[in-house]
């Protein structure tokens, strides 16, 4: 049996797939290690959403080969699906497998891998996570936003059965996971029309009704997904008051060029309804700056929209050409210097916006799911609305749900003081 190091870049869906792989490997007697140097096999789940993601994937593979020349290096994931020949040309990869859940992955790890370029949905009842665990409910997308390569790498939507998902959540709760994150390429598209039919609100209702997991978090949604049927589910406090709603642009002109399935008025209306329905809600977003045709006026529109919306966090990405996508050949391409300047402005706004949102909770006492320690007695964890909290404790807090009084701004989150007795459970 081998010692295997697993690393995942990119989205939560990638992380969920690596949890699944970790569980499969543990079941076959392999030892999982965080040390690339000590591993017999290194597996990287790559990302290709931008050219920067491509570069990070190549850098990680080269670094693994450099620090451990004797390890078997395997590349998998979206970059491996899109252009496996690029990874093969690096000269550091022993095997390329389309997806972590492909049947060929275990064979590649055990020495009989070969290049594949397609991936399929599988079970992800992993043990890789500790306090929080990711559950894939679907993958694939057919929206074809003009900038996005994901439909070409992941393919059309494919859904897991409610039975599989419920069984996995129950299994993870039994193993001690306090929180599960439901993830997918386009979460709101989840539906199952078999004998056990379900759509996203019904699936969540069943998870809350039929499992004991203490927190359920949703990874990413679109404005149209926030239906009254979905919003009413937040009456159950186990459903985390945190929504990630990718905006991409605050200009209707650019949204149309992006082929996004909403306009600003629809997005704004969804935010307003969600905040009205969910107390203490945090809303985070993605912004893509420097898209072809984004002039100064369109960027200023985006900036002002984000400023007025008051996001709890903004993930900023400069536009990156993805070969084969419509945006790659659009007129009005933006130069790198301008994209860098706009990214810096939007990131600074995001930091200020996040700080303003966090400041609302100073003086509050909130349950925190504690995750890890920096080694000096300072522990960190997250509230249900995804605020990172730091607190000092001599005890071991990992995996515990304990209350902290929020006292101050600290690092990238909030500083707290442990409350005697906490609120474990």
Give an overview of the whole structure:
The protein is an alpha/beta fold and 425 residues long. It folds into four domains: 3-109, Methylthiotransferase, N-terminal domain (Rossmann fold); 129-220, Transcription Regulator spoIIAA, CATH 3.30.750.210; 242-360, Transcription Regulator spoIIAA (2-Layer Sandwich); 365-418. 33% of the residues lie in helices and 23% in strands. It contains 13 helices and 20 strands. A five-stranded parallel sheet has the order 2-1-3-4-5, with helices on both faces. Strand 16 and strand 17 form a beta hairpin. Helix 7 runs parallel beside helix 8 (200-210) and helix 12 (296-309) runs parallel beside helix 13. Mean pLDDT is 90; it is low at 113-129 and 421-425.
Distance between the termini: 38 Å
CATH architecture name of the largest domain: 2-Layer Sandwich
Question: Spatial order of the strands in the main sheet?
Answer: 2-1-3-4-5
Secondary structure category: alpha/beta
State the helicity in percent bands: 25-40%
Mean pLDDT: 90
Shape: globular
Poorly predicted runs of 5 or more residues: 113-129, 421-425
CATH class of the largest domain: Alpha Beta
How much beta, percentage-wise?
15-25%
User: What's the Cα radius of gyration?
Assistant: 22 Å
Major β-sheet profile = 5 strands, parallel
Descriptive keywords:
single chain; 425 residues; alpha/beta; Rossmann fold; Transcription Regulator spoIIAA; 4 domains; five-stranded parallel β-sheet; five-stranded mixed beta barrel; 13 helices; 20 strands; globular; disordered C terminus
């Amino acid at each position: 049996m081998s010692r295997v190091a697993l690393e995942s870049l990119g989205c939560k869906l990638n992380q969920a797939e690596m949890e699944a792989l970790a569980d499969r490997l543990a079941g076959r007697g392999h030892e999982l290690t965080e040390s690339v140097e000590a591993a017999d096999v290194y597996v990287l789940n790559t990302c290709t959403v931008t050219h920067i993601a491509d570069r990070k994937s190549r850098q990680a593979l080269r670094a693994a080969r450099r620090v451990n020349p004797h390890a078997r290096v395997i590349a998998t994931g979206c970059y491996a699906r899109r252009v496996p020949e690029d990874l093969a040309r690096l000269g550091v990869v022993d095997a390329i497998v389309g997806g972590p859940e492909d049947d060929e992955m275990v064979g590649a790890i055990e020495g009989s891998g070969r290049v594949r370029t397609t991936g399929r949905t599988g079970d992800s009842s992993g043990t890789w996570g500790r306090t929080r665990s990711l559950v894939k409910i679907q993958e694939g997308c057919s929206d074809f936003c003009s900038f996005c390569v994901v439909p070409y790498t992941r393919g059309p939507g494919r859904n897991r059965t409610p039975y599989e998902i419920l069984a996995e959540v129950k299994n993870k709760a039994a193993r001690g996971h306090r929180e599960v994150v439901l993830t997918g390429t386009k979460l709101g598209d989840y539906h199952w029309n078999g004998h056990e039919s379900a759509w996203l609100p019904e699936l969540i209702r069943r998870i809350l009704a039929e499992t004991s997991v203490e927190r359920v978090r949703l990874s990413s949604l679109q404005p149209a997904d926030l239906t009254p049927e979905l919003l009413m589910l937040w009456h159950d406090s186990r459903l985390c008051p945190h929504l990630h709603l990718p905006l991409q642009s605050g200009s209707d002109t650019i949204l149309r060029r992006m082929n996004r399935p909403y306009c600003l008025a629809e997005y704004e209306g969804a935010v307003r309804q969600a905040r009205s329905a969910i107390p203490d809600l945090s809303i985070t977003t993605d912004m893509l700056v420097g898209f072809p045709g984004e002039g100064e006026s369109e960027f200023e529109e985006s900036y002002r929209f984000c400023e007025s919306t008051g996001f709890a966090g903004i993930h900023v990405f400069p536009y990156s050409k993805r070969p084969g996508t419509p945006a790659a050949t659009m007129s009005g391409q933006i130069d790198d210097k301008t994209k860098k300047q706009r990214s810096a402005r939007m990131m600074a706004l995001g930091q200020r916006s996040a700080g303003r949102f966090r400041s609302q909770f100073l003086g509050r006492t909130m349950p925190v799911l504690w995750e890890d320690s920096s080694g000096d007695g300072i522990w960190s964890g997250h509230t249900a609305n995804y605020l990172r909290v730091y607190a000092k404790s001599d005890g071991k807090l990992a995996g515990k749900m304990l209350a902290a009084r929020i006292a101050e701004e600290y690092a990238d989150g909030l500083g707290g003081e442990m409350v005697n007795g906490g609120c474990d459970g």
